[in-house]
Amino acid sequence: MKKSWIAVLICSFILITACSSQTKPTSDAPPAVDAGTPEATYQKNCMNCHGMNLQGGVGPDLTKVGSKLGKEDIHKILENGKGRMPAQKSYIKAEDLEKLSTWLSEKK
């Protein structure tokens, strides 16, 4: 009888452990975007410093960057870097830099 209870306890422990270790989806995950879009480029290369919604973090807030800087200025900063921001021309293709500059310049 004692062995039966020990077996039940062990099985219960294993079941509870297995159920509690499942990962839950988080709402902090970035939304899915199509590859090749400026949004995808931003998520891959910029989001860590500028935040999931352009709100800033390590880097400045970009939610209204287009009202402060023109497309050419944004492109120059992306390409060559500025301050603590590294140049992105080694990491992002020229075509994608162009799309990203346009997209950011529309944030007003």
TrEMBL record:
Q: Which domain of life is it from?
A: Bacteria
* One Pfam family from the record: Cytochrome_CBB3
The reply on keyword Transport is yes
Describe the PTM.
Binds 1 heme c group covalently per subunit.
Presence of keyword Transcription regulation: no
Q: Which residues form the signal peptide?
A: 1-23
Alphabetical list of PROSITE patterns matching this protein: CYTC, PROKAR_LIPOPROTEIN
Per the database record, which ranges form the Cytochrome c domain?
A: 33-108
Q: Which GO terms describe its cellular component?
A: membrane
Enumerate the residues binding heme c. C46, C49, H50, M85
- Which key words are in the record? Electron transport, Heme, Iron, Metal-binding, Signal, Transport
One MF annotation (Gene Ontology) recorded for this entry? electron transfer activity
- The protein's name is Cytochrome c551
Tell me the organism. Baia soyae
